[in-house]
Protein: Lrp/AsnC family transcriptional regulator
Amino acid sequence: MPQSLDAIDAKILDLIQKDAALSVAEIADRVGLSSSPCWRRIKRMEEAGIIRGRVTLLERDALGLGFEVVASVKLALPSKENLAKFEALVLKWAEVLECMTVTGAVDYVIRITTTDMHAYDTFLREKLLGSGLVSDVQSRIVINIAKRTTALPLGLVSDYVPAS
Structure:
């Protein structure tokens, strides 16, 4: 059962999911608390598993990793063992940013980032198809990203409405 959030918890989460570099003092000031109660709320949400971690988002294009592909992957034999083997391999492949088991005609949808088409071809041949587990890959090259966010819609689980 999901944790219930009051408006202050939701506001804290909204702030840190948009800027993990904020200090506890800055967060406390913005939500109208002193630092100690704010820190306790953050720790409670970390312990409850609501806050999984804090990261720095990097700009892919600035790093030369602007080639992105969304691939639908069908396993040759989607058995419990092969699903586990494939997922273990994906965890080792740095190019794979996301891997989702899906319903329908394919078993997985994966999001891959790399330097260019040639690097993707190498990934496809050596890793995906070279695994011996995959029977079909349908690749879709990402042309433009209209929206990408890591921010969850907290207004769906709390009365708090984030500022736009």
